[in-house]
Write a structure and sequence with these properties.
The chain has 224 residues and is of the alpha/beta class. It has a single domain, classed as 2-Layer Sandwich (BirA Bifunctional Protein, domain 2). The chain has six helices and eleven strands. It has helices at 18-31, 55-61, 100-118, 177-191, 204-215, 218-221, and strands spanning 4-16, 36-42, 46-49, 66-69, 77-78, 83-90, 123-124, 145-146, 152-160, 164-171, 192-197. It has an eight-stranded mixed beta sheet with strand order 7-8-9-10-6-2-1-11, sandwiched between helices. A hairpin with a 5-residue loop joins β8 (145-146) and β9 (152-160). The radius of gyration is 16 Å and the shape is globular.
Length: 224
């Protein structure tokens, strides 16, 4: 079921560091005037920890990577071999007022359809497979996606603000640039009745200020 009438799709052409990637998503949440799907890649070996996660636990679980703390919840995610996307939903959109679990299910149902069309077996998790592990892909929760072997294939974290909803997701199925574009378009087509390409232009100074004020600070990354 489509959840938007229209959607903007931005396949970010730049590989970005963890702090800059998070700063871009924060900027989008504050400035987007329509639902927007961003697909992006990482510059270097990065992993992320959710807003409430413990950095010492994360560093022990995945050594030899750089760390960034997300503004959203969720577990520990290794971004060295994933497909990463963000969905920004302005407050005026009906979806922004749905319950968190309903939003999660709707987005992941669309993602599952896109992956199945690509030839990747994916299904919604019913919740009974939850393990409590800190590593995101070792702890499938309700409405996550599972692969054919029953292991977690995709998860996400969310945050609400006065501007709307931020949904940051990861798929444990990396792909090349062309396939990534096709997957992004397939997901956009299942989320919205119609979508259009979009090219965002964050101000470099604005992003730099967000990076230094929050995401690159040890006080932020190591706050828990």
């Amino acid at each position: 079921m489509e959840v938007f009438q229209t959607l903007r799709l931005w396949v970010d052409p730049l590989r970005r560091s963890g702090p800059e990637s998070m700063a871009v998503d924060e900027w989008l949440l504050e400035t987007a005037t329509a639902p927007l799907l961003r697909v992006y890649r990482w510059q270097g070996d990065w992993a992320s920890v959710g807003y409430f996660g413990k950095i010492a636990e994360a560093q022990a679980a995945i050594p030899r990577v750089s760390w960034v703390r997300r503004w959203t919840g969720g577990g520990i995610v290794d971004h060295r071999a994933d497909w990463t996307y963000t969905l920004v939903v302005p407050q005026a959109e009906p979806l922004a007022s749905w319950r968190g679990a309903e939003i999660y299910r709707a987005i992941h149902a669309a993602l599952a359809d896109a992956l199945v069309a690509e030839g990747i077996a994916a299904r919604l998790c019913g919740g009974g497979e939850e393990t409590g592990a800190a590593l995101c892909f070792e702890n499938p929760v309700n409405h996550d996606l599972l692969g054919p072997d029953g292991r977690k294939l995709s998860g996400a974290g969310q945050r609400r603000s006065r501007q709307g909803l931020l949904h940051q997701g990861s798929v444990l199925a990396a792909c090349g640039e062309l396939d990534s574009q096709q997957r992004a378009e397939a997901l956009a087509g299942r989320l919205a009745r119609c979508w259009q390409p979009f090219h965002a232009q964050p101000e470099p100074l604005d992003l730099a200020q967000r990076v230094t004020a929050r995401y690159a600070r040890d006080g932020w990354t190591c706050r828990r």
